[in-house]
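#struct-help
A.M.: can someone run this one for me? Single chain, 123 residues.
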Amino acid sequence: MVNGKWRSVWSLSFPGMGSRAELKGAIKVQVHYFEDGNVQLFSVKDYSKPITITNEKQLAEEIKQLIEESEDDYQTAICDNYQTMSETTFKALRRALPVLKGRLDWNRIVNYTIGNELKPYKV
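D.P.: on it. Structure tokens below:
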């Protein structure tokens, strides 16, 4: 299950006189992923795109398109990242069995001499 919060802030600056502008933005994402555990991602992605201004309508359409493309690309990258983590990364972190190659009986944990049993293994 995935839950999260998405915030983005965009500003348009005109560095000088003429037909040029710069669109700057920041996307801030907080994602909470839980599958028998608890994983959180906090990320910030900054953008800066130059824009050539020909008229007001073109400027508005280009701003809309650049913001839409940037946010879509970033959301796709986050989804792909979580899919990869789910399929490979998290499974690689888990061990099917402990280093001792057998299941631990947690009711008898005080009877184990784990220090001696671990000496032949290099982790």
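A.M.: thanks! The beta strands are 2-13, 20-33, 39-52.
D.P.: also worth noting: The radius of gyration is 25 Å.
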